[in-house]
Backbone:
């Protein structure tokens, strides 16, 4: 019996070995190399790199742009994560019902997901164009004054946040829709016979059964909130006055515009650690509320 158990365990590890090898080669090893780079200075000209210990981390703590990027990213995450998940769940429940034209609705909700982020950013640039943009034209009908939405420190971050919500909600909707279709229709029939309201059925039955999907969507939403760079490059380039600079965009600037690769590595390590802590926290905090079959 023990021999069979060991054989099955060895067989399982052999099946996992190719995936583990690729994961180590393209994820863990680059992360280790990035950490090693963060402990060195950037080579410039004839000056070779040198071991500087935690000097790059000290520089990071004293960097005002880094602090601004962290604050911006937290506001960005606070705006995108709950809103996109709530919209995704609402849209999934709506298009899961037997309504006329639900196939068209599903396609309309999912269409932003298949568009490249660069294309999405250019579409929304047309919306936000001062005086001539679609948003300005619509607000002008009500007598609102013209405004440079992407050129104002008060609205730039909110504008790029709205673009991300529009792009991600349809993607998350697909997962919720698939999960809703796995729920047995007999549960809804039994609730209807008992006279249960739709809100009570959702709160007591549907939402608890959707918790595994919610955890998966939540982890992806958090990751997406901290790896945004495409539409920032196209729409604002972090401006004005770093008002829309997010952490990954700042890493891109430091690494490829300022060519300070080791400082960019330092910022990358901090971002990876933050994401790892948040992801682990989500799993441990939500695990008790998740019911797996």
Residues:
């Amino acid at each position: 019996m023990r021999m069979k158990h060991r054989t099955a365990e060895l067989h399982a590890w052999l099946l996992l070995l190719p995936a583990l090898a690729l994961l180590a080669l393209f994820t863990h090893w680059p992360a280790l190399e990035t950490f090693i780079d963060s402990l060195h200075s950037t080579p410039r000209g004839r000056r070779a790199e040198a071991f500087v210990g935690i000097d790059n981390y000290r520089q990071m703590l004293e960097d005002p742009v880094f602090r601004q990027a962290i604050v911006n990213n937290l506001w960005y995450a606070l705006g995108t994560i709950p809103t996109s998940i709530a919209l995704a769940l609402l849209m999934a429940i709506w298009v899961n019902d037997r309504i006329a034209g639900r196939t068209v609705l599903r396609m309309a909700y999912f269409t932003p997901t298949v568009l490249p982020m660069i294309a999405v950013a250019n579409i929304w640039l047309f919306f936000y164009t001062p005086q001539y943009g679609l948003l300005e034209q619509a607000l002008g009908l009500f007598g609102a004054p013209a405004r440079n939405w992407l050129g104002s420190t008060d609205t730039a971050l909110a504008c790029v946040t709205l673009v991300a919500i529009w792009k991600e909600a349809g993607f998350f909707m697909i997962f919720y829709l698939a999960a809703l279709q796995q729920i047995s229709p007999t549960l809804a029939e039994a609730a209807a016979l008992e006279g249960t309201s739709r809100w009570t059925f959702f709160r007591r039955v549907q939402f608890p059964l959707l918790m595994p999907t919610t955890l998966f969507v939540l982890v992806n939403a958090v990751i997406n909130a901290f790896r945004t760079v495409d539409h920032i490059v196209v729409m604002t380039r972090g401006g004005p006055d770093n008002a829309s600079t997010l952490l990954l965009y700042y890493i891109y600037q430091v690494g490829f515009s300022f060519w300070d690769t080791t400082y960019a590595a330092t910022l990358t390590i901090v971002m990876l650690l933050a994401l790892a802590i948040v992801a682990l926290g989500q799993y441990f905090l939500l695990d008790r509320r998740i019911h797996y079959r």
In short: The CA atoms of residues 281 and 287 lie 10 Å apart. The two ends are 27 Å apart (CA to CA). The chain has a mean pLDDT of 87.
